[in-house]
Amino acid sequence: MTDRSGVPEGKRFPLPLSSVTGGARKPGAPAPVATPQTATQNAARALGGAAQPPKAPPPGPKPPGYAPQATQSAPAAQRSDLMATEAIRRAMVARVAAQGVKDGAVLAALEAVPRHLFIEPALSSQAYIDASLPIGHNQTISQPYIVARMIEAMRAGKSGADAPLGRVLEIGTGCGYQAAVLARVAKEVYSIERIKPLHELAKANLRPLRISNLRLHYGDGMLGLAQVAPFDGIILAAAGLEVPRALLEQLAIGARLVAPVGGQVQRLERITRTGKSEWASETLESCHFVPLRPGTV
Ligand code: SAH
Questions:
Q1: Using a 6 Å cutoff on CB, does residue 140 contact ligand 1?
Q2: Peptide bond preceding 230: is omega within 30 degrees of 0, i.e. cis?
Q3: Å from CA of 197 to ligand 1 middle
Q4: Active-site residues: which are they?
């Protein structure tokens, strides 16, 4: 896989530490937006907001002749922005871990994906707050905690904790953030979006990251992707009153689907396919997602 740690030019931004700690905003800076999934964020803050100002990483031992070409040629200001971004992302991951996510592969994936590249520039100072944020078309980028929690739940119980999942399907690409995280813990990722401009936005956001094991589809995710099924895991990023039958049928036996289910009041459910015509369901926790809708627009 290609190295995806580089931040392309034009997507860097000034990133105040207060954006992590939830501290004072600059006058005139946009206020954090209350969108679905903020309940968990508020709960986490009430628990004492584990965020501490991130420490800069110690300069590690460098191999003989070490010459970091890319960073040497970048202007100093850009270099320090990049380091600040990485440190702030580490702090975000520490908070997600403090909320109970334990899967090291998932936390590493969260740390590796530059979430600010998936957020419009006006909001990018909020990229590493653990909150969902608007992405247009009445949709949101999911809260980092819930992204991690869903992927962890989909992987949990797998033999060989560090082995990547095989083929995974995501319903609701949105801006593409979770798809990028998934692509770090699964061999093949397919993601479907029903709103054409968001499908295009995700393509544009993901292009610079050059993720070779991710395929984006424009269509109605309630139908799944029968042509590439069965899947070793399925995640829904939008809540239906029930899980579409087609998706249950496209799960491999032994595989898990994780989905928010409900209307105003929602719960995160994990469904394991236990046999050809058998599925077992567990409720994990409460959540709040945008609605799952049929058809395409
Ligand atoms: N995965 C995104 C979350 C996007 S919000 C992230 O990483 O942040 C959920 C998305 O689900 C929205 O973009 C919405 O348009 C989409 N969606 C809702 N119903 C859908 C359906 N039937 N098929 C595909 N996408 C759907």
A1: yes
A2: yes
A3: 12
A4: 142
